[in-house]
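fwd from M.: "can u put these together and see what the complex looks like"

so here's what she sent:
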Amino acid sequence: MDRKVVVPGDLLSEEAKRSGEGTYVLNGSVYSLLYGLANFRDKINVIPLSGKYIPGTGDNVIGVVKDITFSNWIVDINSPYDGLLHISEFPKRINSEDMSKHLRIGSSIMARVKDVDPTMKVELTLNDRKLGHIKAGRVIEISPTRVPRLIGKGGSMISMLKKELNCSIFVGQNGRIWIHGGAEDTDLALKTITLIEKEAHTNGLTDRVVAYLKKEKGARS
Amino acid sequence: MIAMDETDISFFKDGLRLDGRKADQLRPVKIEVGVLARADGSCYIEMGGNKVIAAVYGPREVHPRHLQEVTRAIVRYRYNMASFSVEERKRPGPDRRSNELSKVSREALEPVILTSFFPRSVIDVFVEVLQADAGTRTAGINAAAVALADAGIPMKSMISSCAAGKVADTIILDPMKEEDNFGQADLPIAMTPTGEITLMQMDGGLSPDEFHQAVELAMKGARDIYELQRAALVKKYSQMTEPGREEVHACD
């Protein structure tokens, strides 16, 4: 795979059709918008090295309730924009006055972004079996730009982790990750995820993580 | 501005400047990326005697609320000189000069930032001058551009900035304090690597011919600085991966 560090304004290609994420086209040529790693495939994508989480429809996120209004929970989703969870998006029918009984200020939730409008009003939902209030486990935070690496191509990394670590893991696109399992497994999961975050832009990471897990588990038994 | 014949300063000695530079030579530049852990992006720059630190926060929620724009992010730029940055203690806080520099510097950077990606948010840029030696606005803009890139903010290109001046009827690059204070002109510019100028100011007097010569020289300086900004960003990336690799080996 052909990869290169680029800075904003770098010329990436002279074929406009190869413009992918993190790039723009000017006079038929493709330039980088970001400081990051350029991936030269059919399309050229630039993966940023840092940046804030910008919500997109369909993203899974982990949020913390920070306020309650008449019919919405206002949720901090580690982004410049707050998430809004409407009372009707709660899995069961509840009354407005009972809202704080189900989710209080400070409650953590696993949610999905239902819709984002052009003014960046972010609507969340809890209507899915794997979503809901977080009652047990641990939540850690990594840089949102490293989340794709943690998931891996087609989910290869995260499914390997779930299997090897014997934990439930929920990855929020906003860089928050929920881990639930035995104490030792959770500790190892935490260490592994920190490792992945630190080495996010190196090649052959999945193989190295497998080796790391094997060694750590070997040391335990 | 003091005319040449009223001063007894000689700006050249054996064809070299007071600090031994040629007329078209920059002062030594040092750029470090990611020096502040709490900021989203940061940069420390030394350009000769100038020492400037820039921090970028955002995009983030706008406070106070009434400043927010529905369709785009706003950019705030604060240029500030530390009270100890100059020989005579500077009274702390914003003044007419730093307000003006904040405005022109913001306008130098704003055209390349894709503000439409982040409606209803703000990108804050803070530039602190720790030590001043003529050309702090150019150093500030250079540092701010690198800090913006480091923060992962989408930009059409980098911005590089450099000044040219005139002393003893000679056009020089990157004037230092003595040349700025007692010279005949100072012309700072900021531009993209492709030569689109986003800032140009002038203090003193230049003939049309001298002006063109000075702009050419300042643009050459800015292009050199662009290469240094680039190199600093690339270096940060390699540092990010290297120590990590060692740690994995240590695990073996």
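replying to her w this: The longest strand of chain A covers residues 60-68.
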